[in-house]
Amino acid sequence: MNKKLFENEYVQTSLVFINQEQTIYSYRWKQANKYLSPEMYQTETRRHRDYIQKYKPTFVMADFQESQFIISADLQPFVKTQVLDKMVETGTKKLAIIPPEDNVLKMSIEQTLEEQTAAPYAIRFFESVDEAKIWFVKKDIWHAYAHKL
């Protein structure tokens, strides 16, 4: 079941219910986000933070395929404290990133995530939303095996 949370000209957000215990908070940036000022980007980022804190999703999917906004070095710490760190507090297990094709835009996302290497949730990049969804529901076979020992 999908629940649309919010949509404007810059972003669309939804909550996907996998089962009673697992949810995906999904946000998809739109091409029009290139018109966002840094302050407007911060407002949109705070909205993501608020939804993550409210719904405490098991998984988060950030779809940047259409994004045209470069996350500047000045904004990267803001994204880290407002979204990435909140995912630690809410118990998120996995973060899937679907990057844009543009290398400069992709690099700004990678730089934002650089300091998250010690995060207790897994972070992976995917070429498609479908690949990310498979990763979310796929059981870690080695982890399951280790618990049986």
UniProtKB/TrEMBL annotation:
It comes from the Bacteria. This is Uncharacterized protein.
